[in-house]
Write the C-alpha cells for this entry.
Amino acid sequence: MVFVDLKNTRVEGISGGEGLVECPEMEIEGGTYKGQWKGKLRHGEGKFSTDDGGSYQGQWEHDLAHGQGKYVYKDGTYYVGEWVRGEQSGQAIQSWEDGCTYEGQFLNGQKHGSGTFMSKNGDLVFKGQFLVDRMHGVGEYYFGDGRIYSGQWDTGRMHGDGVMQWPDHSHYSGRYQNDMREGEGTLTWPDGRKYRGQWSNGKAHGTGVMVDVNGVEKASYWRNGAQISAEAAAAT
C-alpha cells in the first residue's frame, strides 16, 4: 500500500529543515497526520488517518510507511508488521473481514515466503510456503473434515510428493498432480490392508500390489478405481 507522496505538495506550517519536528494533527492531502516530519516529509513516528476511514500508525521514512506499523481498514481489519517504502513487505499479521488471519512473510502486499493461514474458526489451516499469494513449495493443510495433507504444492494445488491422512487413520503416501493422486502411491486402510501401485485422476489405475492384513502380497490390476482381472488388463 503506497501512501500519498507529499514531495510536491505544499504543507503549510512545516519548515524545510533537516531535523525531526513533532507537529500536532493537521490536514494534509488524503486525510490528517499527527507526528514527526523531516522538512516537508513525514519521517519518524506518526499517525495518518485517511479520508475513507482507514489509518496507519507507525514508522515513516521520506514520506512513506517504512519500518514497523499498523494499518487499520475502515471495516476494522488490519495489517500489522513490517513495511518497505510504502509496501506491505516483511514479517506481519493480516486479518480479513471474514475472520481469516495470516501470520508470516509478505512481499509487496502479498503472502510470500513462510507463514500460517487460518480460517475464523481454525478448522482450515495452512502452514508452509507461499509464492505470490498462493500455497507453493512445502506445507501442511488441515481440512475442515479432519484430513491433513503434508507435502509439496504448486500454485495453490497439491502437486508432487505428499501424504494425506484421514480421521479414520487411513493414509496415502505418494505422488499428486493438480490435487489428485497421480503416478505411484500407497493407500493404507485402518485395518492394515494396503494398495501399492499406480494411480490416475485420483483413482487406482494400472498395475499394483494388494497387501492383506497378514502382510501377504498379491498382484492386482485396476481401471478407474475398479479392480479388474489380469486378462482384462492384458486386453487393454
